[in-house]
Each structure stands twice: as C-alpha cells, then as structure tokens.
Amino acid sequence: MTGRGRPFLRSRRLVVLLAALFTLALAIGVGALVFGSTRDVPPPRPVANRAFLSSLTPDRPAVVWAVGDGANGSDSARALARRIAADGPDRMLYLGDVYDNGSIEDFREGYDTVYGRLAPITAPTPGNHEWPAHLQGYDRYWRIRTGAPTPPWYAFRVGGWQLISLNSEAPHSPGSPQLRWLASELRRTRGTCTLAFWHRPLQSAGRNGDQADVAPLWNALRGQAKLVINGHDHNLQRLRPRDGITELVAGAGGKNHYPLKRDKRVIFGDDHHDGALRIALGPGRAELSFVAADGTRLDQSTTRCETDRGLTPGGRRATRRETSVPTAGDSGPHDR
Question: Alpha-carbon distance 244 to 308, whole Å?
C-alpha cells in the first residue's frame, strides 16, 4: 500500500467512528426524551385518609389477610384469592406489585380480575412495579374504588389494633414527609398493638434480600409496634423478633416463587407454595397463620401486645363518623 493510501483510510475510519458516535448520542438523547419521564416518579401527594377507614366496631376481634405480588390475572393468583374470600375476612392488606407496570389497564386486567371482589375491604400499599406510574394507575384505581383521594400512607383501626400502611417506594428518610407523619401518628398512640405494612422488607432470606433503605420506617416503629408485614420477595417467611417486632413476608401471591437461602433469622420459610398470611386480631393478641392456596396451614404463631382500647389512630376515642367503613361482615365482598 502506498503512503498516500494510509491517510485516506485513516480519515475514512475517523469519519465512520464519528458517525457512529453521533448516532449513539442521538439515540441516547431521544431515549432520554421518550423514557425520561417514566424514570421520574411523581412525588406523593399527602391527603387526609378518607379512603381506607376503621371498622365500625374497631375493638371487635377481626380476621385480616395479607398477600402481595399476585396481581397478574393468573389462575394461581385467582385460586389464592378465592381461598381468602371463602374465609369471609374483615379486611385484606394488599402488599404491593400490580404487573407488569401498574398502569390502569394492569389494575383492571391483573388486579381486578383477581382481587376485585375483595376491593371494598382492601387496604393497599404500593409496590415497586406500580409506583413509578402511581398517578395514572395506583392512585386512580383506588380513587375509583373508594370515591376518595388515595393517600400514599395512612392508618386505621380494626380488631383492637392500629394498622399503618407505609410506603417503601416514596421518600422515607429521616425528615421526609412520610417519617414526620409517622412520628406524629405514633406520638398520639399508646400501647404496642400496632401492625405496619409496606412492600419491601427490611429483612429477607429471598432473592431480593434485605432492603436496608427502609430502616428509617422500622426504626420509627421500635417500641410501639409488634408486627411488620411485607411482600416483594415471592415466598413466605416469618423472621425472629428484632427490636420487639416480628417481621413476616407474604409475597407468594401467585406470580412465581423466589428461592430462599439458609438464614438463621428465619423461623419459618416456604418457597414452594402460593399462599397468604391469615391474621386473627383481637385486643392484646394476634394469631398468625401462613395458609396455602389449597387451605393447608403451613405455619402458626402468636403475638401479644399492650392494649390501648377504644382509641383512634390519632389517640382519641372513635366516633361513628370517623369509623364509617363496613367490614365484610357488614356488607360482604362483591364483584364490581
């Protein structure tokens, strides 16, 4: 090759390289314009809780079920939902994840076809799948269902316990609006008969593992709560008490199963069954059972707490107007 040919080839290669870099930069720029808004999660809008209210008889014993990670419209998820409905629960806690992206269409096709008949007695918390589009999906669906704005976090009373729905997908660091609200709620509440639930667990022996970022939620509950219920890992777990709080994972709602690894913190673990957590609440006591879709009781335990009878989450005696949601025993679940 002649000396003149080499500069020509080098120039040609430089042109090709620059063209490739320009194309890549253009693609990245267009991608940012198209997809950037989906990565920017809309901030939560705290509103007064008029959607998920206390029972008409908040100190009467009640049956509550908790399950997450099953809103995909599958036969396995529907079978588990039928098991829950057959028990005639007073309340159901949905622990988050509506597949695949938590759009209003996903709620209609994946959630409503599975849990729709339980919606009148359901208290939800958002998962990582639906939170990025929560304004269009989670917030909108529950506003349609309840007729009231959807609070990103809230509290209510049932079975002699205070139940607190927290949000692991919204800001929850010390000083955040959520932590300030929780601190205020807990300052006005005496006793330890408090159950908190959110999506991602602080402790887990499953595939997703510990979610250390939710520690501020846990730390705020120390000394004032006895139970924390989570989903996210697609299995069932009961962990040893930590700081006086027992954490349970009930994410085997029917999507699939995540394997469990050996972990000395786990008292009970199951990564083979679709199942949910049945909680029989009464003043000073909670009976907990993991139940498979076929009705098999996989694990049972009891938790005791210090009572604070007759008080609302705000620390005052409940009025009928403040506790106006019917339980399943009042009206029964139904399809919409």
Answer: 18
